[in-house]
Design goal:
The chain is 23% helix and 26% strand. With 317 residues, the protein is α/β, with parallel strands linked by helices. Strands 1, 2, 5, 6, 7, 8 and 19 form a seven-stranded mixed β-sheet that branches. Strand 15 and strand 16 (233-236) form a beta hairpin. Helix 1 packs parallel to helix 7 (294-313) and helix 5 runs parallel beside helix 6 (191-198).
Length: 317
């Protein structure tokens, strides 16, 4: 069994920034990166599925998601962080030190004085043919991240809630037209967001429509839609599609531990990155349902590392 002062679960921008700060503070953190076979907590997080990132400070010529995460990982290792490709399958927060079981463990293999939860969140997807193949090749889950690349395109947004309306309205800054695809004949978004979308000259609606296939070879060329009332199929010619049907935070390991979560499953943190359990901190998309950006995740990882360091300094172990 290995003991660490700081156990970091997750290796996206939040987890790796926390690792950099913790390692520089001589806390010798252990980072459990995730598993390559996992869609919910793969090493590097969601940025591993992102092509060009143009809005991360310091990279005026853009940088790919995998390259950015590779550099952050190398920086964490340079300062002495212990990064392990595995998955935390169970966390016991009922006693001190905290105990963690990794993949395949029958007994806990790591104990920790503090834990930083940086497990992120995953976008809900359509689960239709062509979606996986064209993700980051015309199909995206983040308008703020990728909208700029669709200047002058005809694009679609799938969803009917506030997030979908926000994505569509943002994308009108770049696109020639935006078609909102919704499987019903009325939106579930708030009235103010509905009115803004319904009255926007660039926004059109495909009512009672369900995406059954994303079309294209190397990039999106269209969507196959099925009418949910008549069952008829048709093709919508678009060169970009944004899936906005929600996100799910990766919080299964803290179920039943006493870490508080909001009705949507996001970890509640504050002040700072502190959670309801003393000594457990949260950073990144696992506690952020509003911004969900690489830079905000990195910033919250910094906060969590500093909060953990100060917490440790205030106690004797």
């Amino acid at each position: 069994m290995t003991h660490t002062r700081v156990l970091i679960i997750g290796s996206g921008p939040a987890g790796l920034t926390a690792a950099i700060y913790s390692a520089r503070a001589q806390l010798s953190p252990i980072v459990i990166e995730g598993e390559p076979s996992s869609t919910s907590d793969q090493p590097g997080g969601q940025l591993m599925l992102t092509t060009d990132i143009e809005n991360f400070p310091g990279f005026p010529e853009a940088i790919s998601g995998p390259e950015l995460m590779t550099r952050m990982r190398a920086q964490a290792e340079r300062f002495g962080a212990d990064l392990r490709v595995s998955k935390v399958q169970r966390l016991d927060a009922s006693s001190r030190p905290f105990r963690a079981w990794l993949s395949g463990d029958d007994e806990p293999s790591i104990t920790a004085d503090t834990v930083i939860l940086a497990t992120g969140a995953r976008s809900l997807m359509l689960n239709v043919p062509g979606e996986d193949r064209l993700l980051s090749h015309g199909l995206s889950t983040c308008a703020t991240c990728d909208g700029f690349f669709f200047r002058g395109h005809d694009i679609a947004v799938v969803g009917g809630g506030d997030s979908a309306m926000e994505e569509a309205l943002f994308l009108t800054r770049f696109a020639t037209s935006v078609t909102i695809i919704h499987r019903r004949d009325s939106l579930r978004a708030s009235r103010i967001m509905q009115d803004r979308a319904l009255n926007h000259e660039k926004i059109k609606f495909a009512w009672n429509s369900q995406v059954t296939e994303v079309l294209g070879d190397s990039s999106v060329s269209g969507l196959r839609l099925r009418d949910t009332v008549t069952g008829e199929d048709r093709v919508l010619d678009v060169t970009g599609v944004f899936v906005a049907i929600g996100h799910v935070p990766n919080t299964s390991i803290v179920d039943g531990t006493g870490v508080e979560m909001d009705p949507n499953g996001y970890v509640i943190s504050g002040p700072g990155s502190h959670t309801a359990i003393d000594g457990i901190f949260a950073a990144g998309d696992v506690q952020d349902h509003e911004y969900r950006q690489a830079i905000t995740s990195a910033g919250s990882g910094c906060m969590a590392a500093m909060d953990a360091e100060r917490w440790l300094e205030s106690r004797e172990f």
